[in-house]
Amino acid sequence: MVHEDDNEVVTADQASTTSDSFKAVRDWVIVLVVALVVALGIRTYVFQQFYISGPSMETTLYQPNRVLVNKLSYRLHDVNRGDVVVFDRVTSNGESIQHDDLIKRVIGLAGEKISISKCVVYVNKVALKEPYLDSRDTEQENLNDRCNQPEMAEVLVPQKQVFVLGDNRPQSMDSRMFGPVDEDRIVGRAFVVLWPMSRWRWL
Fold first, then answer.
1. Known catalytic residues?
2. What number of other Cβ atoms are within 10 A of residue 119's Cβ?
3. Which whole number is the average pLDDT over 173-201?
């Protein structure tokens, strides 16, 4: 009888251990699923990492820097001059539509008049101070080397659009070429350089 009772106790302990193991596995699966859903939700609606491809924002950003973009910024406040933004530029060759994520700096806001004279940007006929431009460009004697497009006739930025330029004016395709950008095409505001760690800084 004692021997049989002992067997029954061992069997009960084994069943309890199996149940506890199952619960532990189930709990971890739930935690991982919730973490994955939260991570995907954050990436989709709050923050997203982008890597820099090309020289158009040098010397502020270099290839292959990685930046973190706040996708909620412009749901909470308006776009501001000087913001570095990622936006979706849509192009078509008549047969297919292509989407490209570009990163540029906001120069002109809706309702403002933007012009360029001798590489100097004017907003409503007032010269814009641009401390983020590198001296390697601003000190170039040849205007074409300095900004690639020394002159631009005055452009009125339409409502719900912004005028954007790359910090590397000689090597940037921006609103000088394709015009103002719809605000609803803006993915978000780049606010920090994540990588490499040696270049970590706020934008």
1. 56, 104
2. 21
3. 94
The pairing of strands 97-108 and 152-156 is: unpaired
pLDDT at 45: 58
Cβ neighbours for 12, distance < 8 A, ≥ 6 positions apart = none
As a residue count, the chain comes to 203
The reported pTM is: 0.77
Task: Return the SS3 of 64.
Answer: coil
Dig out the tokens for 76 from the structure. 């909470």
What confidence tens digit (pLDDT) does each residue in 114-159 have? Answer: 999 999 999 999 999 999 998 877 888 899 889 999 999 999 999 9
Backbone φ, ψ for residue 10 (5° rounding): -60, -45
Give whole-number Cα distances, 47 to 39, 50, 195, in Å. 10, 10, 15
Task: Give per-residue burial for 173-186: e unless 16+ CB within 10 Å, then b.
Answer: ebbbeeebbebebb
Give rounded-to-5 percent helix, strand, coil for the chain.
Answer: 35, 35, 35
Per CATH, the number for 47-202 is: 2.10.109.10
What is the rounded CA–CA span in Å between residue 164 and residue 176? 8
Q: What backbone phi and psi angles, to 5 degrees, belong to 5?
A: -60, -40
Sequence spans of domains, the chain: 1-45, 47-202
Cβ atoms within 10 A of the Cβ of 73, count? 18
